[in-house]
Amino acid sequence: MVAPTRTPRDRWIEEGLRTLATGGPDAVRIEALAKRLGVTKGGFYGFFADREALLQAMLDTWERESVDDVIARVESEGGDPKTKIHRAGMLTFSDDRLLPIDLAIRDWARRDEAVATRLRRVDNRRMDLLREMIGTFCTDPDEVEARSLIAFCVAIGAHFLAVEHGNRTRPEVLARAADLILDRSHQAK
TM segments (predicted)? Predict the structure, then answer.
């Protein structure tokens, strides 16, 4: 007789992140996750002491994937600094998986200081990358900081805006904003 295989730890974390993205931290409940995974909740305790341990593992995974893995991929794929900035933004804020998690964590951080501290660390690392890359083509430290902040605000804020752009599409306006931030000349299509 073969013993039943336990649901891997990563599946609990992944389902927790998926649930966080759609329902917020209050929706991340052990019983509900077990049901979605099609398992009993008993296997959960082989990996996690409690729900808080799962939440911390979820935050660890989000931080690693949205910062460490993104930076590693940006560096390994190479390119000039402007290409790297664009790639990092696309990997983080256009990703169908990472973006909803990031936005849910931002909302969660408004109510939980420990999560806010984690978010600050992640955002500071992201800003450091922007400063470094923008600093390669812009020498004024004040302008580097302003461009970095604008780039970051556009990357996040664009997902919350319900504004219309006249006869322009959102992607067209975002592309033009990127041209301005990255000091690229606007080329007609």
Answer: none
- In a domain, residue 136? The reply is yes
Dig out the tokens for 16 from the structure. Answer: 């927790």
Q: What single letter denotes the amino acid at residue 81?
A: P
| Segments forming the whole domain that contains residue 84 | 9-181
Residue 23 included in any domain = yes
* pTM (2 d.p.): 0.88
Count: domains in the chain: 1
Which residues, other chains included, contact 133 with Cβ-Cβ below 8 Å and sequence gap of 6+?
Answer: 81, 82, 84, 85
Q: What is the distance between the alpha carbons of residues 189 and 176, in angstroms, rounded to a whole number?
A: 12
Residue 25 lies in a domain: yes
Summarize pLDDT for 77-134 with one digit per residue, the tens. 999 999 999 999 989 887 788 999 999 999 999 999 999 999 999 999 999 999 999 9
Long-range contacts of range 78-85, CB-CB < 8 Å, 24 or more positions apart?
A: 81/132, 81/133, 81/134, 81/136, 81/137, 82/133, 82/137, 82/182, 82/184, 84/133, 85/129, 85/130, 85/133, 85/134, 85/151, 85/182
